[in-house]
Amino acid sequence: MASAEGAEPTADDRGERGSAPSLLALIRVVLHKQFLLLVRYPLNTASQFATIFAFFLVIFYSGRAVAGASLTDSLDGLIVGFFLWTMATVAYAGLSWNVTREAQWGTLERLFMSPHGFGRVMGVKTGVNILLSFLWGGVMLALMMAVTGRILAVDPLTVVPLLLLTLGSVVGIGFAFAGLALVFKRVENLFQLVQFAFVGLIAAPVGEIPALRLLPMSHGSYLTSQAMAEGIPLWGMPAWELGLLLATSISYLLAGYACFHLAQRRSRREGLLGQY
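The chain above was modelled as a monomer; its predicted structure follows.
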């Protein structure tokens, strides 16, 4: 129904004009909000990045002091692993912590009243978080290669698809824990434990124990390490390995979103959205 002359357009009117413009507006607003959070709190942003980079420096220099020249044999794996851990942490934390922050700010219920629907809003937020993870990971990778003096192969046609598939399972985990945040509210300590669990998933010996390929991130980490450390292109990898990575990524993503959907239904049914 069209709005009266001179009146503000309603959500229904905006929806009738086409979903594409409003979706683009949603993406623009979410990007703008994320940019403002990074810029308006520069000390917090800088400290987060510095903490991650300092963590790498401690591992690198302490490992070189203890292992000496033998560290060179595992240096490529260390850089790739830390690169993946940085991206996974940003993508996962951006999604799971977002629900907690929205509840703290008192804006969570507004997201449910959006004409786009809460699911689409969270989907856009997820896309923005992945974009941010690429930014953080790229800067971190450049700094790590500068410090170590080791240059890895970074072919965008190979690395980007592998990273997207690897982060798919991470996003699924993020959705599951975002659902827990909707229901149980204070789960920050559990969020932090999961971030450290990513280290074990990335370092899983997939080559020695093939069953570990079914774990989230493990297979993607293995293939990404081959691409960046050994220079193997995407089209040079076995098709069955790429297919398995695609299947596991989609499976974890769908399972995580299903958990999130069930959790949001429960939180709405029990009136938990306005509570923190």
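The mean pLDDT is 80.
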